[in-house]
Write a structure and sequence with these properties.
Helix content is 84%, strand content 0%. Helix 1 runs antiparallel to helix 2 and helix 2 runs antiparallel to helix 3.
């Protein structure tokens, strides 16, 4: 356990940040998972509607340094290709 006043404050900050990061990673993963379910069901119209939500979630994750920018770009590219493959 922290002893000094600054260490106690740092612990409080870490707990808040950890909770915020967990929430954001969960929402990002949920958006991607829902999108992949639509792709698996070959539902192109709903998948096209869900794609901007996935982009938004990925961009927010990059902004808050939860994932790297290149990883987000790679995921966006792969998901867009998955939509384009649907006939």
């Amino acid at each position: 356990m922290p002893i000094t006043k600054s260490a106690k404050k740092a612990l409080r900050q870490n707990k808040k940040r950890h909770a915020r990061n967990l929430k954001q990673t969960d929402t990002t993963k949920k958006e991607i998972k829902n999108f992949k379910k639509l792709i698996a069901a070959k539902n192109k119209t709903n998948a096209s509607d869900a794609l901007p939500k996935v982009y938004k979630a990925l961009d927010k994750a990059v902004k808050n340094h939860l994932i790297a920018g290149n990883k987000a770009a790679r995921l966006k590219s792969q998901l867009t290709k998955a939509i384009n493959k649907l006939q």
